[in-house]
Amino acid sequence: MYIGYTAPIVVFVLSVIVSYIFVMSPTAHEMANNGYVFISSAAKAYAVCQRASKLVQRVLYLRVKENTEASLPMLSKQIENVYCKATSHYNHLDVRLILKQGGVRNENTNFPIDLVLYDSELSSDIDSLKSSVNTIRSGCRVLNLDVDEEPVGILEKVRTYENVVLGGTFDRLHNGHKLLLSQAVLRATKSVTVGVTDVNMLQIKTIPELIQPVDIRIKEVRDFLMDINPDLEYNLFPLKDLYGPTKDDPKFQLIVVSEETVRGANKINEKREEKGIPPMDVHVINVIEDSHACTTAAEECKVSSSNQRMRMLGKIIREPKPNPNIPDWPYVIGLAGGIASGKTRILQKLKEKGAAILNCDTIAHELYKPGLQLNRTISENFGKEVITEAGEVDRKKLGSIVFSDKKQLDKLNSLVWPEVIAEAQRRIKALGEQGHRVVVMEAAVLVRAKWYKYCHQLWSVIVPRDEAIKRIQKRDNLSAEEAAKRVDSQVSNEDHVAVANVVFSPNWSTDHTDTQLEGAWKELQEYLAKRK
Ligand SMILES: CC(C)(COP(=O)(O)OP(=O)(O)OC[C@H]1O[C@@H](n2cnc3c(N)ncnc32)[C@H](O)[C@@H]1O)[C@@H](O)C(=O)NCCC(=O)NCCS
Ligand SMILES: Nc1ncnc2c1ncn2[C@@H]1O[C@H](COP(=O)(O)OP(=O)(O)OP(=O)(O)O)[C@@H](O)[C@H]1O
Which residues cross the membrane (predicted)? Predict the structure, then answer.
């Protein structure tokens, strides 16, 4: 009798304690990857999201049990709440508030679900709700959340349109983009058209070399749209100017923009009016602030892709792969970059940190010395006139021959490059034997000659073309035309980035450059410690 009463109580108390511990303080290990929350009413979306964000580490879907036309104003408000507060309150999470109209049926998600959550009011429906989601992983856990509605203030009417349009770069989709796309989806009954800026529109951006290719950006936007409402028609295309198809297609009735791009919408409407096409209505969203922005590091105050790209500097952007062409030690980092990109300071700092520095241009000059094989080879191939009376290679004369004739340049490279890289490898080996763990190899032709094949990692240094020109003019006392010629004769920033493991951009203060370098060096030490 005694045991019969106490056992269920003990089990109940234990389960409360266990679920309290689990819900209130999960460790990263206990956190689910991707979660899906069923919510009884749109009014609870933000409150539920806040609670659920403590249990999920990657993607969190929010699905109201039934979205109706009457709930559009509440959904619009919740879109704002969920995404505007996401960056400061749950920045680790990729939140996706589902806007599909109607009840839960035949739901698909781009990310498989490991945790289903539901607000307590849906306790009796949870089995059927769960069975309507096709992308739930086996062994998925189910938990309930007890959440009250939060006051949301005044709700604005939501007008809907058949065809809605918007544009953007959408590099590394962030909460500002999700807010914009969601407000467009909410207002569309038939189609949403999205222009995604093509490469010709990117040059004015911060670190354009790190912007994802347009096909990847289009795919990310499409995946997000399909996740939040698969029932609309989506037209995505590479956008080559501000207007896209909007300047002459009357079918577009609404354009969605932010406070900072509303001018673009006005310009489009002016153009439409000139052509006798009715202007589109304009829905303007607020710009989401970035509470983590570091303005002293030249970051923007708003949530932005530029900030995300700035934060990639000095970090591994491409995982280094084992290199079977060279010995495991010493660890060789190739340092590449355009002319006047700021490699010298970076090399100096790396030296201070303990790396051995090897300059391949110096090696080439040394191999040109009288009496050495390369000196004879140059003389045999380019004539005695490129050798001075003292027996040195006359680099000015040699330069005047090769820089005006591509064939001659290729010939010189094919003679010099193998000698230089062979000597560099001998010196790297010797530095390793002297006890150096990290050797940084600098060469102007590192990328062109593909010498990164002889490195464990490639670190590339880039500055915008105009900045490089200004710096050369100042440093080398050259005209703008001469400086431009030198910059343009080199491998482009894009090509340097395309093969880099780490990118630096000394385009701001020297402190900013040093911070990038500190980050890269720290990450390298951690990597090497694990590699042993
Ligand atoms: C020229 C355009 C398309 C280029 O886009 P942009 O480089 O600004 O793209 P980006 O990816 O940075 O932003 C995309 C959109 O999200 C908005 N946005 C960006 N960050 C935030 C933020 N933190 N909060 C809110 N909205 C944001 C932008 O204002 C923009 O409207 C755009 O700026 C513009 O002028 N749009 C209006 C005209 C238009 O839409 N044309 C295309 C029709 S198909
Ligand atoms: N963050 C910065 N802000 C302004 N100027 C800078 C910055 N970093 C470097 N510079 C200046 O830019 C010029 C070019 O830098 P540096 O000579 O280091 O380039 P480099 O990559 O070593 O060039 P090269 O390949 O021509 O030898 C120098 O005059 C340097 O002082």
Answer: 6-23
